[in-house]
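Can't paste images in this forum, so I'm doing it all in text. The chain is below; anyone willing to post the predicted structure tokens underneath?
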Amino acid sequence: MRLPLIAPADLTPEQKPLYEDMKKGIAGNFNAFKTLREDGALMGPWNPWLHEPGIGKAIWDLTLAMTANASLPDNVRQIVILVVGAYFDAGYEIYAHIAVAERDGMTETRLATLVANLKPVDLSPDESVGFDVAYALVRGGTLPEPLYRLCLKTFGQHSTNELIYLVGLYAMVSTTLNGFNVPVPERE
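Text version of the structure:
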């Protein structure tokens, strides 16, 4: 870990409001996995964002907007996030979203296949489109036109936009986690 965790008692005046907002949002939206050290320090991507509160707040606001205004089905969102995390080999992201997907009933076989950068054979049509779009986007270049059209047909314009933004957000989360070598907590 390249940035030390910041205990609540050590927060600067600029960090305190962001910490409080993140802690509240995490409790409501990201509670399937470990996010806090015993002393209340934020773990995962939240710690690096807290180190740079001006940038961290913008990223956190985007994360909240993507969560609060989600229109994609949760199973598709988790597949997309796991495709991105697996591509970047972002340990904490994989750990966190496996926990969310398990809580939501995703099978061990499907999870193992996704984190191996492979496409599960049991995906529904909408899950398959979500996988294919995320898989294509993380590898770079323009999303192929037939895949874009299929995504539009499957999800509509608003949810297609969301899917594309979701890939970008979690690519940034993965880069944050990898750049600062954020460790993965022990599974409980």
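The chain has two domains: 8-68, 74-179. The chain has a mean pLDDT of 96.
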